[in-house]
UniProtKB/TrEMBL annotation, chains A, B:
Domain Luciferase-like: 26-383
Keyword Ligase (UniProt): no
Protein name as it appears in the record: LLM class flavin-dependent oxidoreductase
Species this chain originates from: Kribbella koreensis
Upper classification of the organism: Bacteria, Bacillati, Actinomycetota, Actinomycetes, Propionibacteriales
Homology family: Belongs to the NtaA/SnaA/DszA monooxygenase family.
Amino acid sequence: MTRHLHLNAFLMSTGHHEASWRLPESNPVANTDVAHYQNLARIAERGKFDSVFFADSPQLIGDIGRRPAGALEPTVLLTAIAAATSRIGLIATASTTYNDPYNLARRFASVDHVSGGRAGWNVVTTAGPEAAKNFNLADQPAHAERYDRAAEFLEVAYKLWDSWEDDATLADKESGIWGDDAKVQPIEHVGRHFQVHGALNLPRSPQGHPLIVQAGSSEDGKGLAARYAEAVFTAQQTLEDAQAFYSDLKARTAALGRDPSTLKILPGIVPVIADTEAEALRLERELDDLIKPEYARRQLAKTLRVKPEDLPLDQQLPSDLPDEDEIEGAKSRYTLIVTLARREKLTVRQLIGRLGGGRGHRTFSGTPEQVADAIQEWFDAGAADGFNIMPAVLPSGLEVFTDHVVPILQARDLFRADYTGTTLRDHYGLARPAGRTKSLQEAVS
Amino acid sequence: MTRHLHLNAFLMSTGHHEASWRLPESNPVANTDVAHYQNLARIAERGKFDSVFFADSPQLIGDIGRRPAGALEPTVLLTAIAAATSRIGLIATASTTYNDPYNLARRFASVDHVSGGRAGWNVVTTAGPEAAKNFNLADQPAHAERYDRAAEFLEVAYKLWDSWEDDATLADKESGIWGDDAKVQPIEHVGRHFQVHGALNLPRSPQGHPLIVQAGSSEDGKGLAARYAEAVFTAQQTLEDAQAFYSDLKARTAALGRDPSTLKILPGIVPVIADTEAEALRLERELDDLIKPEYARRQLAKTLRVKPEDLPLDQQLPSDLPDEDEIEGAKSRYTLIVTLARREKLTVRQLIGRLGGGRGHRTFSGTPEQVADAIQEWFDAGAADGFNIMPAVLPSGLEVFTDHVVPILQARDLFRADYTGTTLRDHYGLARPAGRTKSLQEAVS
């Protein structure tokens, strides 16, 4: 069977370019407009994408002045999208640092139920002290501590999702017995971070477990991904870096006894697409010219742990920046930005332009053929199992990709002509996890 | 202007009678079927109900064998219903004991955004040790402590909902300024239970604040309701008790300086409706005969803090039960059950029948005219501002109420002929809360 790409549509208000909201075509309050997102998901479903995805953090990020700020809570948003679509997968980000496993496991299982098996959870540990301050803490727990909690959080979630066997519901009207007590068991979890008695207050969901997604590329993040993730979103600027990341993560997965093909790696790409390359580059420049550098510089300074005035716009980055080891926040993104700036000898102004397009993700401007070529190159070269498509402008960038790039990928037999299954796991070619009893039976057989 | 009733449809799987799932007409797995609930909400909207409502607790309650167990998380469920309706209000229960205010305030604000201003939150403190054990605790916090936390939780939620002023979003494409920094402020809350920096990561929602609902009738519960609630759901068995509760709660509300008309009191009623009274009573008996007493007795024993074998089915309750003061759980429900059993000299078997219909709520079997009379009597006698309609069987009981009782109430000009507003606050006749600046201006003027 031909190996097929997986495509995820990463949706964000008016698009991933920070100035996209300023375009005449954009609805600048799309960030709270559920109809906008329902429309985007229908476009992606028309394009047979595996899934749509929302980033999230339980904090108000960045400058209110700069770009659309604030977002609908992703599980609520995905539920509204579920009602407007029928096949496409629905992936929400949620933090293991600032949630309780009982509530969150139930919420994702609920989305899985209402969507008929289309839910996925992007597991994040949430970098930065700002979020901690919304949850009774003065500062964030240390990076390693957050990842330790995340691993235990996932173990608890698995136990809760499996606390009902698939056939626990009898619904026997004649005898008057609704459920089989023996097939719904407390989990009695006692760990370092959590004590959770269970069982979950919801029958097992269509997928058994929602799809587990991971997007952190630090050492701790790769460790978590190798163990638990079924799809990984990652920011990679060059083919070589992407190949190295891909083979590293697949090897880590195999080393843990997992079949590496059960983990799909999807680098991000911010395509700016037009009929000609010149027109695409013009559109990209138009967007970059709409960036207000003072906001972007303030954000960059925060990421780099320096003062904005230490970053003159027309000079390169200062040479005395901290090492990744000293960063307790988004470690891999920090290194990616510094490496990008140093490798290409970018001034702060140039770096801001590059980051304004995709916040560290790869940007690519060209014709539909060129975008398809760029995707195929990485796919064929062992750098990707698919792509996290991050249109610079929404909805137009997603429409162009769906109507002009997808048909090329389909014509090359790189991408599905139609959905063949009904669940998100079906789309990603992943098995439905066996329930508790079956797992136990397999363990002793 | 004529005073109108408010009607809320309390939805629960196949109906409020515990044996309703055993009827031939019932879908016994309706508890996880989103289409079932979307259909119910459309029926209630056809009947011009103010709202639909879901009870909830973060624990698996009761015997799996007894009745449909487990439920979709209510904010997810309401979002799915929002997509299938356009006017009816959407009220979800959520616990202040087992949630964080930042996450929960955002989730309700998100439901308010996606529904165009139709969200309500039934604030509960969650009785019982079982829930605590799902959240790292060995036992529940004491009753008074839970209510103290609930009050602070609500104060934090108000601050978060008001952390964006209504006009904070400028969306000025020309100048490139999206939001007005001065109109989005951290809340910097520091209290006994919570430290929350804010601001919320979501612009102010259509209603400003989701409608606040309360359903506990203990002393602490009435105190919380008088201070914060805009609608109160309550279980009252007799007109005299309901009148006493009504005037007590309205007086407490006035004593706090609130206009008592801004708090709507809705006793629960479990109507069993048929063309003749005899037929309604036959249907009620048919349902009661489907109850399996061993499950119900086990549940009753738990509520009363005794062993099941201390409750012989054909004897009255033992005389040496604990006082309400000793109960750390659902205090008022405990007292209601004991009072009902003693007042009517019910055997355990008879008590189980009464509770099987409505778990302590008033049951009423009769013709549509008789049900309308029963509603009007309490409404006219100062016992209710409306009713929490709890059909014994769903969807049929809601259909009958909508098609046969609502028209009688409308003909008597006791209930709206159509919606006149678009938000849940509109339906309940409640003002949209002013934002932060306006509140400050009012405070100094």
